[in-house]
Structures are given as structure tokens and as C-alpha cells.
Amino acid sequence: xxxSSVYSSFTLHPSLAVFSQDGKRGVxxxxxxxxxxVLAKIPLSATLSKTQLLSHPLFSSLSSFLSPTGPSSLxxxxxxxxAIHLCRTTALLDTISFNPFAKLFPRTYxxxxxxxxxxxxxxxxxGTSLLRTTQVLQGQIQQDHERLNSLxxxxxxxxxxxxxxxxxxxxxxxxxxxxxxxxxxGADVNFxxxxxxxxxxxxxxxxxxxxxxxxxxESEVHYKYSADSSDIYIYSGASPIKxxxxxxxxxxxxxxxxxxxxxxxxxxxxxxxxxxxYVPLQEGVPGREEKAKxxxxxxxxxxxxxxxxxxxxxxxxxxxxxxxxxxxLPPSSLPSDVMVPISAESEASALSALEAALESMSQNVAIxxxxxxxxxxxxxxxxxxxxxxxxxxxxAESELQILSTTLGVVREAKxxxxxxxxxxxxxxxxxxxxxxxxxxxxx
Length: 443
Ligand SMILES: C[S@@+](CC[C@H](N)C(=O)[O-])C[C@H]1O[C@@H](n2cnc3c(N)ncnc32)[C@H](O)[C@@H]1O
What we know:
The chain is α+β, with helices and mostly antiparallel strands. It has two domains: 5-214 and 216-250, set domain protein methyltransferase, domain 1 (Alpha-Beta Complex); 274-418, Rubisco LSMT, substrate-binding domain (set domain protein methyltransferase, domain 2), CATH 3.90.1420.10. The chain has twelve helices and twelve strands. β6 (187-192) and β7 (199-206) form a beta hairpin. It is globular. S-adenosylmethionine (SAM) is lined by residues 25-26, 106, 184-185, 211-215, 263-265. This is SET domain-containing protein.
């Protein structure tokens, strides 16, 4: 089945086609296309969404499992994953319009979810925040798979055939593949009134053809649902498209951690990149409640135990510095007003703690990158593995760059504070890199 022939029933711009170039499939234009042109019109009925699925008899009887609050509720991602698996492996959903498009999904993905320990890509991520995030996500996915399997078994036991596939007919690896198809190809579509009116509803769905656009942060291509025709329109944006060019979509301001984890690629010099670090305000810290309250009053968005973002310009989040200042204080010396106390001593201690943590984090990443680079020579001929590794390397190098820049800023600040004297580290604050909200939705 050619990728382009399945779109023949859609209204597509005649210059556009889906094909692979240099091993990368995407949307390309054979001719110049003017700005603000309609590139495609996709009927809502051809999309894969919860609403579309629930209008199918097989899925409508599952709706009792879809209570958003119930303990046995099925998430939208789960529902779409089940449908994708059915489209790809059975004839049960042959009648839905989306069916042929699910068969075009890649067979493998390059997310760290799929990296095997000992592979170049996996080992390049050792010591990075992403490896920990990935492990958390994998644990979560495994639990979700077990829950889904038992829900579908429960459904099967209460209903006549056709039955949903369970156990060996829907193993974990098939679930993860289907789920990753949702992560990497899903789009949020707004349903609402006309121009200027508020969005009434937003639904996550896979829109055929739209799911073939690769990402570029430069792209002005955008899409919009039209209630008048029940179609999703894709527009070229304010700039024209050149003949022979790949046509991209902007997936949004996404850091490399999220691109690699949820889409399976990363970008060199990604302006949106950041590194998460975590300074736990754990149970058992003396005066924990008072310290959390003080920080929340100073920084209204402060959430204890949430990660702090380090950006590529090395800027230090004020709330991170304040937390480091407050953390070692005995409860009796906490101020009564909302100002977090700064003294030369507390400042030097806070900066020293951060410096030590950043040093250890960047060393871990650098060691892994060096070790893997040394092994590349021995891996001649494993081209596919090298391609996966390339995305992992870009991610890890960017993390290292951000950590090093931030470390430079911290050292400079510390030098100013101590006048160049080596201060003794007076606090022991464990700063760890940690997961970036593992089940965060993909934008
Ligand atoms: C929405 S799909 C785009 C179509 C996809 N290339 C295909 O062949 O089905 C998203 C996937 O495309 C790939 N992709 C998108 N943008 C990319 C980019 N800028 N560089 C490398 N791969 C990209 C990733 O594999 C991602 O998971």
C-alpha cells in the first residue's frame, strides 16, 4: 500500500504527497504553494478519537468503563491504543474509516522506552535525567497494561463475542507500540464556536495525513476544525512553501527530553531545551511545613518536590536558590514575614550545595558519553543502532551543555559571594535529577 494512495478520498493540495526521502517519511511539496493556502481538508469521521470509537458498536459497549473518576476507568490513550492494535492485527475494525491509516504506522520507534540496556543509545543516556524518567514511565505503562488487560477480560466475561484481545493476544510490547503511536502521532483538536469564540472542547485524536508531518519549530503550518463542514483544515501559514521542500508542522515548544521520550527524536541546538533538577523538601526535614509555606508565600507557583528547570542560558530559578537557602535553617530561625533570609553564609552554602550537585550530575553524563563514543568504533555496520544513538547523543550532549553553563554561573556567583575564598560546604542537600512528570500529556 503506498502511503499517498490511501489519502485519495481526501481533499489534498495537488502539490503535496507523502513519501520517504533519505529514509525519513514526511510530507513534501512538488511545487511552490502560496501563503495562507488550504493544504488539506480531512473529514472528522476519518480520525481516530474517543468520540469516533464510541459510535462503533464494539466500543460503545465499553463506555461503562469510561467513567473519568471510577477506579476502573479507561483513559483515552488506552482506548486509542486498543483500537490501533485491533486495526493492525484483526478484522474487527475493518469498517472504520481510520483502519487503513493505522497500517501505515512505523513498526519500530526510537524512544528510550524501547532502548535495550547495553545498547549504544541506552548507555549514552546513563546518568541523564531522561533515563530515570523513562524508567518511571515504563513502570507506569506496565501497570496500565495490567489494568487494561484485566478490564478487557472483565468485559469479555460479561459479553458475547466479538471479544477484545487479552493476554498473549495483546502483550505488553504490542500495547507499548500502540500507545507510542498515540503519543507520537496524536493531535489536540479544539472544538468551539467560530473565530474569537472560546474553545468549548478539546479532544486528543490521530488525524490521518496530519500525522505524517514531521516537526520543525520554524513551521507556520497549522490546523483548525470547521464546525460548518465537520472537517479539519490544514493551512500553510503566513509564508509560502517552496517547490521540493518538506512541509513541516510545529509540534510546539518541546524540550529534547520530551521529544526523545514521546516522539523518538531530538534536535541539535533546541532553543526550548531544559534540564530538570530536583531538590526534595522531604518528609522528615525539620520545619518542613513552615519551609514549604514560606516558599509558597514568596513564590505562589511553588510546589514542594516538583523539579526545577535549568535553561540553556544558565539562569538560576529564584525559587531554587530560596529553597537551598531555607532548607538547612533550623525551624526556630525561619522569618515570620515572607522574605526568604539571605546572609553571606547561607548564600555561599546554597551555592556550594548546588555546585556540588551540578558537578556530580555533569560528570555522570560526560562519563557515559565518553564511554559510548569509545565503543562506536567496534560497532561498524550496525547502522540502525547508530541512528538511534545519534538522537540519544544529541539529547545527552545538550543536557551536559546546560549543566556546564549553569555550573559556570553558580561558580561565578559563589566567587563573588566568598571573594574567591574556598568556603566549607555547610549543608548537605541532595540535589537529584528526576523525572519530568512522567505521564504528562503530550502537546
Ligand atoms: C507525526 S509523525 C510524522 C510522520 C513520521 N515521520 C512517519 O513516517 O510516520 C512523528 C514522528 O516522525 C518523526 N519525526 C518528526 N519530526 C522529526 C524531526 N524533526 N526529526 C526526526 N524525526 C522526526 C519521529 O519519529 C516522530 O515520532
